[in-house]
Description:
The chain is an alpha/beta fold.
Amino acid sequence: MPKPNSLCVYCGSSPGHHPEYTEQARAFGTEMARRGIALIYGGGKVGLMGTVADAVLAGGGKVIGVIPRQLVELEVAHPGLSELQVVETMHQRKTRMYELSDAFVALPGGFGTMDEMFEMLTWAQLGLHRYPCAFLDVRGYYNGLRTMMDHMVSEGFVRAGQRESVWLGDSMAALFDWMDSYDGGSASRVIGPSSIKA
């Protein structure tokens, strides 16, 4: 597969309790801009979401936000993006972010981050896409998730190959190298507005 041109980043609309979360989100956005990778994200200007977006923009990169109308005020929609797409529902948001993206990365976040990322993992498990999916660990945030995913395999609910296709680590350089060399096979994209009804 070609190197990703647009990367969907899921992360918290809060900054978390430790400065390192914000520092790593800023560094991630800066690296995306340096590599010429467009950011696709949830459209907010607050929390880690806003930090990543601001860093990409500061580096001269492109940022497309996708946000449901009812969350424009709640999540404080970012006013300075390259493009802000306002949709009607969360289902439309997730589908549109998928359509715009070549890869998916979760930085630390809460329920929304887990929901969005695990939907992409599920779609990959079902063979609906072959795009890279990764978790960037910061301060051991995803240690428990790593243990849980391995437990899913040992208990027979996830195949080992499916688990191995998900990258989880704390090295930003290793993550980008992994995405650049990712071989997801030749399956074509089959999900779109006609197959995912909002």
